[in-house]
């Protein structure tokens, strides 16, 4: 052990994920690792105590994306986002959202709930001439 409390060989994966700001808490990071969906250098990892070192490649699902991250350095604290981005290199950044995925206000004419005008027309058709 070094003087800062870090193992000389690396850093716990749950702690590194938390320092790099991929998850909001170490508990969530440990749960992600325990779920069996985390891979380090292509090997499945299920223990949060697994050590990661610079040069390791992490693959894991995060939201709707699969993240592929290379560890650049170990963290010493959970600092600001700019500091956290220095801990990793994003090998497969998530694709930007398409314009149709970001806006829910636009929809096809005639789809959805009928307006008052539509209802009056329907009533007029049902009542007949």
List the helices and strands and how they pair.
Layout: E1 11-12, H1 13-19, H2 26-34, E2 38-40, E3 43-45, E4 51-52, E5 57-62, E6 65-71, H3 81-85, E7 88-90, H4 99-102, H5 116-127
Antiparallel strand pairs: 1-4, 2-3, 2-5, 5-6, 6-7
Helix pairs in contact: 1-2
Short synopsis of the structure:
This protein is α+β, with helices and mostly antiparallel strands. Helix content is 29%, strand content 20%.
Walk me through what this model shows:
The chain has 129 residues and is of the alpha+beta class. The chain has helices at 13-19, 26-34, 81-85, 99-102, 116-127, and strands at residues 11-12, 38-40, 43-45, 51-52, 57-62, 65-71, 88-90. The strands form 2 sheets. A 5-stranded antiparallel β-sheet has the order 3-2-5-6-7. The longest helix has 12 residues, at 116-127.
Top keywords for this entry?
alpha+beta; two-stranded antiparallel sheet; 129 residues; 5 helices; elongated
């Amino acid at each position: 052990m070094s003087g800062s409390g870090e193992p000389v060989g690396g850093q716990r994966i749950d702690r590194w994920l938390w320092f790099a700001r991929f998850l909001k808490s170490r508990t969530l990071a440990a749960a992600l690792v325990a779920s069996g969906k985390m891979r380090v250098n292509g090997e499945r990892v299920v223990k949060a105590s697994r050590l990661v070192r610079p040069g390791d490649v992490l693959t894991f699902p995060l939201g709707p994306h699969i993240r592929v991250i290379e560890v650049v350095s170990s963290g010493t604290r959970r600092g600001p986002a700019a500091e956290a981005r220095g801990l990793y290199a994003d090998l497969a950044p998530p694709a930007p959202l398409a314009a149709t995925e970001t806006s829910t206000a636009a929809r096809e004419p005639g789809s959805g709930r009928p307006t008052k005008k539509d209802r009056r027309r329907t009533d007029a058709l049902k009542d007949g001439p």
